[in-house]
Design brief:
Layout lengths: L3 E5 L3 H12 L3 E5 L11 E4 L1 H9 L3 H7 L1 E2 L4 E4 L4 E3 L8 E4 H11 L5 E2 L6 E3 L7 E4 L4 E4 L1 E4 L6 H6 L6 E12 L10 E4 L4 E8 L2 E9 L6 H8 L7 H6 L7 E7 L8 E2 L2 E3 L2 H4 L8 H15 L5 H30 L4 H12 L3 H12 L6
Parallel strand pairs: 1-2, 1-12, 2-8, 5-14, 12-19
Antiparallel strand pairs: 3-7, 4-7, 5-6, 9-10, 10-11, 13-16, 13-17, 14-15, 15-16, 18-19
GO molecular function: FAD binding; monooxygenase activity
Protein name: 2-polyprenyl-6-methoxyphenol hydroxylase-like FAD-dependent oxidoreductase
Keywords: Monooxygenase, Oxidoreductase
Length: 371
């Protein structure tokens, strides 16, 4: 008889976990509070570390076809001067979030994904007692429960009470712009005094555009953004002006300051932002969730769920903890505002040879799903 799993949340991590567990022979149910979880959102970057998991699940080739290769990220000052400009190709791709979610959901067995099914309670169970997951209409038992329920994860509250995300001190605006006068050739990010703008090609004269600025409740995202960056190098002002005509996702950034003291209790395990919500400074949020899913499914080859979850935690803590801390440090550097501090930061970044900068990023992307 197949072992049963309930995945709480149908984000990228939850859908990947469901698919990976099904590939390992599990009977899986995904419970999602939203009625239309496959729509909405903007875009995300997917590097080869995550694509290696999607390859193992048989959907990697299709995922690659969904997005454009970005080339390596270059970094500029607000006046347009390049600080780092690595050469070569990296395999990094930018995809619309809803396209990737639709691909993953479509690879699941029919009936796996249940929408408008908010989880109202979880009993994590024990080694000798199955877990129980409740919605407004039913309660189901499971051998495994995956908490893939995002940054405000109720599941995390059961595994690590009091381990909550904190404000990062800045807000982010994200959007997809289309019908550009000409295609964006390569991804780049521009740093100013506390502000940032990034642009990533999506193909077909479309781009993923994002900006960050210190959080100020008095500022209106709809009216202030274009004016804030009006003096920056081209094409930043034009790209931000185009946000007036498209849906923009705007929110203060929050993140965990450190990993929860544990990632599982009983038969309940955390994955993705529920486990390691980080600031969006490495382009690895979705990628790490996909990695988590692949590793968790592989660990369930162990006969006992308790052993599988312990193995998963041992495998994931070092990497996710290190990247969470690195992303936080980058966020602090991006918030520097004093003229002297910004000048010192920019000189330090410009002093790093382009080849070394690329190698540092490629070390993150070099992870592969263990056999």
């Amino acid at each position: 008889m197949a072992r049963t799993a309930v995945v709480c949340g149908a984000g990228i991590g939850g859908l990947t976990a469901a698919l990976a567990l099904q590939r390992e022979g599990w009977d899986v149910r995904v419970l999602e509070r939203r009625e239309e979880p496959l729509t909405g959102g903007t875009a995300l970057t997917v590097s080869e570390n995550a694509l290696s998991v999607l390859d193992a699940l048989g959907v990697g080739a299709r995922a690659r076809r969904l997005g454009a290769e970005t080339g390596p990220f270059g970094l500029r000052r607000a006046d347009g001067r390049w600080l780092t400009r690595p050469r070569g190709t990296t395999g990094l791709r930018c995809l619309r979030r809803d396209d990737l979610a639709t691909l993953l959901a479509g690879a699941l067995r029919p009936g796996t994904l249940q929408t408008a099914a908010a989880v109202t309670g979880i009993d994590p169970g024990t080694a000798g007692c199955r877990a129980r997951v409740s919605t407004a209409t039913t309660t189901v038992e499971a051998d495994l429960v995956v908490g893939a329920d995002g940054i405000s994860s109720p599941a995390r509250g059961l595994v690590a009470p009091g381990c909550d995300p904190r404000p990062a001190g800045y807000s982010a605006w994200r959007a997809v712009v289309t019908d550009l006068p000409e295609p964006v050739a390569a991804a780049s990010e521009t740093w100013g005094a506390g502000d940032r703008v990034g642009v990533v090609p999506l193909g077909h004269r479309s781009a993923y555009v994002y900006a960050t600025a210190p959080t100020d409740p008095a500022h209106s995202p709809a009216t202030d953004l274009a004016a804030r960056f009006a003096s920056w190098h081209a094409p930043v002002p034009d790209l931000l002006a185009r946000l007036a005509g498209v849906p923009v996702h705007h929110a203060p950034v929050a993140a965990l300051h450190r990993l929860p003291p544990r990632l599982h209790t009983g038969r309940l395990v955390l994955l993705g932002d529920a486990a390691h919500a980080m600031e969006p400074n490495l382009g690895q949020g979705a990628c790490l969730a996909v990695e988590d899913a692949g590793v968790l499914a592989r660990c369930t080859r162990l006969p006992a769920v308790a052993d599988a979850l312990a193995a998963y935690e041992r495998a994931r803590r070092p990497r996710t903890g290190a990247l969470l801390a690195l992303s936080r440090r980058l966020g602090r550097a991006s918030l520097l505002r004093g003229r002297t501090a910004v000048a010192v930061r920019d000189r330090a970044m410009a002093a790093v040879p382009d080849a070394l900068a690329l190698r540092q990023v490629e070390r993150i992307w070099a992870w592969r799903l263990p056999a």
